[in-house]
Design brief:
This protein has 352 residues and is of the alpha/beta class. It has 7 helices and 15 strands.
């Protein structure tokens, strides 16, 4: 049986980068166990390293340069003599930096990229860094409630006569060697831990545990509170899987430890974000036994629900791999992206 392991110390990535003599422009494979900094660890390093930095009185260009130099120091990279105008600005770790005094994020003249990371640096009224959040483009797309991100993929969910459907009976060939039908998740990990071989339930075991939720209800947070509805379902899912606690860091997929994305549907349209579920793009998680996990390896739990008398009642469950997603759900056609994207961040975004 798998046992608890000490959490990864993010500082070890910094030490490896220093020893490597890499620059911010040198590519690194997503998921490389020594040099690629996963998003949660990248956030921990930058939040600790940038907090308290004063940008007071600096012109915008100087402020941007100071931020980038500090980021290099924090992550163990040498500071270049000049910063190239690349997209993204830090190609090696695939991220851009945005300094935010308000909750209105503006992205100019380029599409959000699902695999790119967005380092959002919150500054106070007197221009001192007070918080850093790091999210993928996929996570940012899910925060958009304005309709400005018109390139998001969507699909249609029409429930059938069966209340539960296991659309893919086995995991993808790439993931299959790492899954097991029995894991005591209460003794192993938290929901946001990185996935590991021997700690991943089979898709059939996930289906059996989540099927027990059909018929259950929870209080409705209201039509303008989709995130709260989703969080309530996320709690139920974590408990049903067997975790001792609930955690959610807002990253994709929702239950990272099980490579499980959760969708709550009270209408037929499923918002899928910037990447098709069957995409073979690499997912931002550490490699498992030297194998890079892809979006199509993620498992999708789609719950359909009805709302009545202030209660959300779960009526249907569909479980599938990303690879098999469109065997059951019909994809809508995409649309054209705006030149300037404005994404109003949730009021509690920097509190998470």
């Amino acid at each position: 049986m798998a046992t608890n392991k000490a959490p990864v110390d993010p500082q070890r990535f910094v030490e490896e980068i220093r020893r490597s003599d890499l620059t911010i422009y040198d590519p690194i494979k997503i998921g490389d166990p020594t040099l690629w900094i996963p998003t949660p660890e990248l956030q921990a390093l930058l939040d600790a390293g940038l907090r308290g930095l004063s940008l007071a009185g600096l012109p915008l260009r100087t402020r941007s340069k100071v931020i980038k130099e500090k980021v290099c120091h924090v992550l163990g990279y040498p500071v270049p003599k000049s910063f190239r105008k690349t997209q993204p600005r830090f190609p090696g770790q695939i991220f851009d930096t945005y300094v935010q005094k308000s909750n209105n994020l503006q992205v100019w003249n380029e599409e959000l990229s699902a695999t790119r990371r967005y380092v959002l640096i919150r500054i106070s009224g007197n221009d001192v860094v007070i918080r850093v959040r790091v999210v993928t483009g996929e996570a940012l797309a899910m925060l958009d409630s304005t309709g400005t991100l018109t390139s998001k993929y969507q699909a249609r969910c029409i429930p059938g006569t069966d209340s539960t459907e296991l659309i893919a009976s086995t995991d993808t060939p790439l993931l299959a060697p790492f899954v097991t039908p029995e894991v005591d998740l209460s003794a192993v990990a938290t929901p946001i831990k990185h996935p590991q071989a021997g700690e991943l339930l089979t898709i059939r075991a996930v289906f059996e545990r989540l099927s027990r939720l059909i018929g259950q209800s929870f209080a409705d947070a209201g039509i303008d509170q989709e995130r709260n509805r989703g969080a309530a379902l996320h709690r139920l899912v974590c408990a049903a899987l067997g975790y001792a606690s609930y955690q959610d860091d807002g990253q994709f997929p929702d239950v990272r430890h099980q490579l499980l994305e959760i969708k709550l549907q009270t209408s037929p349209t499923i918002d899928l974000g910037l990447v098709r579920p069957d995409s073979t793009e690499i997912l931002d998680v550490p490699m498992i036994r030297e194998k890079q996990i892809r979006h199509c390896d993620v498992r999708y739990a789609v719950f359909y629900a009805g709302i009545d008398a202030g209660q959300v009642r779960l009526t249907h469950l569909f479980l599938t791999t990303g690879e098999a997603f469109f065997r059951r759900f019909t994809q809508f056609k995409g649309k054209v992206l705006n030149a300037k994207l404005q994404i109003p961040l949730p009021t509690d975004f920097f509190d998470q």
